[in-house]
Task: inverse folding
């Protein structure tokens, strides 16, 4: 354990003597990592767009990385409290009772909780909002030690298809006693907190309660878990300008579009098996037989020890004979601009996606979407109207949907325009901020 370092404040705190008006409340966001994953992009967007006259964002990162620099550049007060040891290095799929029972891990976790509690007291905040599973546990317990109200933001599936069964039970139990409020990034994510999660395949596409489907036995806004923990669904919002249309110039893209005259089909996301890059490659091979001019791009890098899978899919591309028309572009930092240069976005996850940030970014750019029907994706994509949904893990069905889009470019353009309108109505960062601040208002009093 090391002392807090790198604490930088980009905006001075208001002087309480300068005005008799009620000062804005300070909200502390805690994240265990600063690597730019989907949850970290969402945190950056949220913290950067809070209404500062009401809430001042303060961020505490437990590891250093690119997120810290981006937060500081956005004018967000950001502090670094690096935690050494195995507490933050453990992979989600290695968590379980045996891991928790190891004395060293228990000791390091306890020390981390105590250290974070000290930071919470030092930063003088009114509310603690944790942004990741590890931050939920460490930051949530630390906030309880400081007698602060706690919001857990759950962005991952709490189910055995994503975590070890023992970790699922432990996290669901903690949900009942640690946070005052749980925010989930989709109705599908929220329902993984139930004792028995209903299959996401049963969720119709495009159903909305504030854009989220619920069945009679589902958890929903205003429900409680345990004796007091309240629940709220808040979809992540995009900062991509919804007014961008399918006619946006490819010159605006970070990476040049695929070489003409063929259409450009892209998959954007971290290189990891559950994101389904191998399914996308198989679908590309099938599609190329009918549309030999089509070109495909895979955008993303292998993070969190996924190097073996990265090598596996590159070898698969060679075996399938697709290397002439499939590009691996690696990590790209400005995805909304990249979207301007493509013709179609494909989402290929083989496990239910908790939400789908890249999907709303593509739709904001007026791009049609082919996506797998699982998790929170049907809450975004209305099948046949703003995109096409296909079964998870089905490369042939994915290829058929891609071909359907390519065969009728005018209809694909109309689908993209309807998607852009849907994002403007439901998935902007302003919508997200408003709903999150409503939670703060209820916890702290307006």
Result:
């Amino acid at each position: 354990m090391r002392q807090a370092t790198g604490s930088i404040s980009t905006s001075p705190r208001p002087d309480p003597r300068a005005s008799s008006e009620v000062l804005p409340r300070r909200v502390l966001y805690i994240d265990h990592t600063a690597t730019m994953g989907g949850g970290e992009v969402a945190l950056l967007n949220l913290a950067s767009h809070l209404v500062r006259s009401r809430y001042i964002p303060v961020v505490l990162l437990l590891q250093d990385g690119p997120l810290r620099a981006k937060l500081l550049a956005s004018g967000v007060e950001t502090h670094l409290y690096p935690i050494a040891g195995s507490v933050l290095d453990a992979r989600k799929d290695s968590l379980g009772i045996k891991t928790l029972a190891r004395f060293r891990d228990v000791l390091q976790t306890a020390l981390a909780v105590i250290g974070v509690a000290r930071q919470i007291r030092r930063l003088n905040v009114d509310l603690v909002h944790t942004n990741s599973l590890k931050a939920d546990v460490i930051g949530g317990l630390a906030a309880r030690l400081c007698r602060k109200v706690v919001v857990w933001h759950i962005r991952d599936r709490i189910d055995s298809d994503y975590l070890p069964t023992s970790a699922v039970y432990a996290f669901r139990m903690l949900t009942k006693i640690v946070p005052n409020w749980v925010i989930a990034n989709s109705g599908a994510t929220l329902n993984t907190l139930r004792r028995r999660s209903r299959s996401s395949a049963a969720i119709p596409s495009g159903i909305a309660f504030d854009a989220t489907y619920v069945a009679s036995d589902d958890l929903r806004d205003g429900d409680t878990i345990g004796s007091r923990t309240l629940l709220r669904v808040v979809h992540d919002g995009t900062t991509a300008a919804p007014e961008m249309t399918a006619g946006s110039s490819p010159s605006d893209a970070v990476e040049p579009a695929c070489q003409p005259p063929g259409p450009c089909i892209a998959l954007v996301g971290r290189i990891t098996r559950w994101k389904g890059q191998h399914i996308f490659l198989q679908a590309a091979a099938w599609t190329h037989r009918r549309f030999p001019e089509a070109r495909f791009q895979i955008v993303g890098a292998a993070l969190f020890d996924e190097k073996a899978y990265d090598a596996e899919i590159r070898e698969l591309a060679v075996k399938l004979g697709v290397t002439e028309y499939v590009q691996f572009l690696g990590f790209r930092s400005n995805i909304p601009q990249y979207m301007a240069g493509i013709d179609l976005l494909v989402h290929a996850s083989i496990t239910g996606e908790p939400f789908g940030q890249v999907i709303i970014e593509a739709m904001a750019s007026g791009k049609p979407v082919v996506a797998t029907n699982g998790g929170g994706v049907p809450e975004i994509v209305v099948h046949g109207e703003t995109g096409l949904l296909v079964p998870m893990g089905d490369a042939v069905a994915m290829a058929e949907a891609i071909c359907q889009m390519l065969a009728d470019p005018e209809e694909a353009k109309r689908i993209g325009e309807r998607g852009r309108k849907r994002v403007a109505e439901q998935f902007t960062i302003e919508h997200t901020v408003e709903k999150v601040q409503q939670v703060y208002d209820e916890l702290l009093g307006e």
About this structure: The longest helix spans residues 103-123. Confidence is low (pLDDT under 50) at residues 1-20, 93-97, 197-217, 244-254.
